[in-house]
Write a structure and sequence with these properties.
alpha+beta, Herpes Virus-1, 2 helices, globular
Length: 86
């Protein structure tokens, strides 16, 4: 049986915290790709970025689902269940 996400109820209509990774912008650093938290709107950098702020946000805030914040990409990921969502 394929893994399923049990956190879809935590998805909210959110306003992005900015146009780039919140923490990287504050530090004057760079990122590779961006992720949008679907619980609160935090924009963080992906795990291919050296700072991995999106994952750090998940570990701190426990908000389970992010979506790509990259133009032309339309996917979501649940950190808790470790599954991509349609």
């Amino acid at each position: 049986m394929a893994a399923q996400c049990t956190h879809l109820g935590e998805i909210r209509h959110v306003t992005p915290s900015g146009k780039g990774c919140k923490e990287c912008l504050e530090m004057g650093d760079r990122w590779v790709h961006l992720r949008l938290c679907l619980s609160c709107g935090h924009v963080g950098c992906c795990d291919s970025s050296k700072n991995k702020h999106a994952s750090a946000h998940f570990r701190h805030a426990k908000h389970p689902i992010v979506k790509s914040f990259e133009p032309g990409e339309d996917w979501r990921w649940c950190y808790v269940d470790e599954v991509f969502l349609d």
